[in-house]
């Protein structure tokens, strides 16, 4: 081979060797789309960095991993690729299988937020358990709509994401079913008051619109 590099080769600054592109990891952030160091040197540098920081050596699967399978470092089991959660941005899979991934997430939420509830409140609504209890106290400890005791659902405006109050399960679900629409809620109130017109069958295939005052009372068998 001549002194000049072939078009399919790249020189590693660590070991000084001219190697094929396949010996370098891909890196889309670099101009040539390849990592700075070759795979062997990158692994050596990573291991040295871990030792310097007091991190134990990376675990390796004790047996070969077949195609369509993946090894989980936490439980040390080889499982089908579908047993690993998908990475949201991309087509890859997470390092740990679903049970281990969930357990790690739970431990992280406990360590950083004191529990899953605090984590979800902060992430979804921007408030914590302390603010939740303060708001509940302002409501008198009851649902802001029906007055049921010990409500646990934080309600918010889906357009602005502003927190509105704390509701019981039924009231919170009811607002969701009515899509937070005042028009739909007003229509439901009108319907419950019995002031809407109803369609009544007077003959097979023949219908007549009647007000509730002229409607038939419910049969005893209904």
TrEMBL record:
Signal peptide: none annotated. Keywords: Endonuclease, Hydrolase, Nuclease. Transmembrane segments: none annotated. It comes from the Bacteria. The keyword Hydrolase applies. GO terms for molecular function: endonuclease activity. The keyword Zinc-finger does not apply. This is Endonuclease VII domain-containing protein. It comes from Micromonospora zhanjiangensis.
């Amino acid at each position: 081979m001549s002194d000049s590099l072939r078009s399919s080769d790249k020189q590693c600054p660590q070991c000084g060797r001219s190697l094929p592109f396949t010996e370098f990891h891909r890196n889309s952030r670099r101009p040539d789309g390849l990592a700075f160091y070759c795979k062997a040197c990158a692994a050596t540098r990573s291991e040295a960095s871990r030792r310097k920081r007091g991190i134990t050596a990376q675990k390796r699967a004790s047996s070969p991993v077949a195609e369509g399978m993946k090894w989980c470092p936490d439980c040390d089991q080889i499982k089908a690729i579908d047993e690993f959660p998908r990475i949201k941005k991309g087509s890859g899979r997470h390092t740990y299988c679903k049970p281990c991934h969930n357990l790690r997430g739970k431990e992280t939420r406990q360590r950083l937020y004191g529990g899953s509830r605090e984590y979800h409140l902060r992430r979804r609504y921007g408030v914590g358990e302390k603010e939740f209890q303060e708001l509940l106290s302002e409501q008198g400890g009851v649902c802001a709509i029906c007055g049921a005791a010990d409500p646990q659902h934080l309600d918010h405006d889906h357009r602005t994401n502003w927190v509105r109050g704390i509701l019981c399960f039924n009231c919170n679900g009811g607002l969701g079913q009515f899509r937070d629409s005042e028009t739909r809620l007003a229509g439901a109130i009108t319907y419950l008051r019995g002031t809407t017109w109803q369609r009544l069958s007077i003959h097979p295939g023949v219908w007549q619109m009647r007000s509730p005052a002229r409607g038939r009372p419910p049969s005893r068998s209904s």
